[in-house]
Amino acid sequence: MISLKNVTFKWHKDDAKPTLNIPHLSISKGEHVFLHGPSGSGKSTLLALLAGINTPTSGEVYILNNNLSQLSNTQRDIFRAENIGYIFQNFNLLPYLTPIENVTLGCDFSKKRKQLASQSHSLENEAARLLSALGLHSQDHNKNVATLSIGQQQRVAAARAFIGSPELIIADEPTSALDTANRESFITLLFNQAEQANSTLIFVSHDETLKPLFNRTISLVSLQEQI
Ligand SMILES: Nc1ncnc2c1ncn2[C@@H]1O[C@H](COP(=O)(O)OP(=O)(O)OP(=O)(O)O)[C@@H](O)[C@H]1O
After folding, report:
1. Into how many domains does the chain fold?
2. CATH number, domain with residue 101
3. pLDDT per residue over 66-118, tens digit each?
4. 146 Cα–ligand 1 center, Å
5. DSSP letter, residue 4
6. Could you tell me where the DSSP H helices lie in the chain?
7. Dihedral of CA 69/72/76/79: which sign?
């Protein structure tokens, strides 16, 4: 599903040391991976390589057997829209739209995801199903998203990532604003959706108490020490 070979990444070409130096990383389909590391260790930088937002300075990043460096910027944008659901740290929701509208937007740039999402019922019904499955009550589905609590907005961001069952879900610190009990129950809901959609899940956090919930843990510091 994901394979990295001799990857380095420098933000600026004259940086003395690369931000990332990962000799090898392999993640199989369906794994639920907890990726942790101290602040500034490069977690978000790595996620941007996996999502094809950036490309490595050297080495190769393969996602679903595609070498992302060999795709043009436009091809990478299409690849991301078709195959990757991204839950951003700050959610990136459109504040003047409702939860249902924010979620359906998740497949506006992908025919494949739109088709998959509207297979058994309408796109709006699928958005409502996902929002409810991720813990947002139906009376909140058509409110203005800016009026929702942080925890409710987080559920909208997760539903938008899952619509159309993308192969890979990337979650960048999505639970940092929640208390422990809410964090664990939200992660359980994420796992349920990932299993239903048969999606691989990469979840980034520096909260190591969440580790035991996942079937694989990767330390970014150890990954970089394989050299
Ligand atoms: N757009 C950018 N331009 C230049 N340097 C950057 C950029 N984004 C991140 N960096 C640098 O790359 C390094 C890794 O940052 P990154 O955000 O990937 O770490 P992180 O592990 O996700 O941190 P946190 O847990 O605090 O979010 C840091 O030194 C940071 O200053």
Report:
1. 1
2. 3.40.50.300
3. 999 999 999 999 999 999 999 988 899 999 999 999 999 878 889 999 998 88
4. 28
5. E
6. 43-50, 73-83, 99-105, 111-117, 123-133, 150-162, 180-197, 220-224
7. negative
By most ligand atoms within 8 Å of CB, the mutation choice from 19, 47, 208 for ligand 1 is: 19
Token readout for 221 is 């510091």
**Is the CB of residue 220 less than 8 Å from the CB of residue 41?**
yes
pLDDT tens across 144-199, in order? 999 999 889 999 999 999 999 999 999 998 887 777 778 888 899 889 989 988 99
Pocket of ligand 1 contains residue 40 by CB under 6 Å: yes
19 lines ligand 1 (CB under 6 A): yes
DSSP 8-state secondary structure symbol assigned to residue 184: H
Of 15, 41, 219, best ligand 1 pocket probe by most atoms within 8 Å of the beta carbon = 41
- Check if the beta carbon of residue 27 is closer than 8 Å to that of residue 202: yes
Q: What separation in Å is there between the alpha carbon of 40 and the centre of ligand 1?
A: 5
Residue 132 in contact with ligand 1 by CB distance below 6 A: no
Q: What is the DSSP letter of 19?
A: S
* Ligand 1 lined by 176 (C-beta under 6 Å): no
Please count the other Cβ atoms lying within 10 Å of the Cβ belonging to residue 91: 19
